[in-house]
Amino acid sequence: MANVIFYEKPGCASNAKQKALLIASGHQVDARDLLKEPWSASSLRPYFGAKPVHEWFNAASPRVKSGEVKPGAVNPQEAIMMMILDPGLIRRPLMRIGDHCEAGFDPASVNRWIGLKSEAEEISDRCAMDAA
User: Which of 108, 95, 118, 97 is nearest to 21 (CA)?
Assistant: First the structure.
């Protein structure tokens, strides 16, 4: 069992399903509001690890969907600053267990990391509310 600090967008149906799966898998979830967290470069950057910068962004963000923000055209420092100013740009959820941090919810990756029940079939990091 892991204690997962889980940064979510309140009201996001996908985040609710992700939390439910973690709890059903025996993990404790400490849910926090991603949008209200006082992010800094040093607190946010570890969640993205070695992922390419464009994968740091929430593809469903209105600013990304409209083309105002072009995730493939910014460097890591610019991306972090944009996300600090507008946390809605951050791919979610952000999850931390101890010193290990992850952005997004890929069930296979989460399963390898901490273990999940087998019902992880259709749960991803795409917010159903954002897709609408």
Answer: 118
What count of other Cβ atoms lies within 10 Å of the Cβ of residue 111?
15
Cross-strand bridge partners of residue 6 = 31, 95
Residue-wise pLDDT tens digits, 37-57:
999 999 999 999 999 999 999
Contacts with 19 (C-beta within 8 Å, 6 or more apart), sequence order: 6, 8, 29, 31
Q: How far apart are CA 93 and CA 58, in angstroms?
A: 10
Task: Record the tokens describing residue 11, joined without a space.
Answer: 């009201």
Give the pTM: 0.87
Domain boundaries, the chain: 3-131
* 80 HSE (CA, 13 A, CB side): 15
Tell me how far apart the 2 most distant CA atoms of the chain are, in Å: 41
Catalytic site positions: 12
Question: Could you report how far apart the first and last alpha carbons of the chain are, in Å?
Answer: 34
- The CATH class of 3-131 is alpha beta
Per-residue pLDDT tens digits for 62-79: 999 999 999 999 999 999
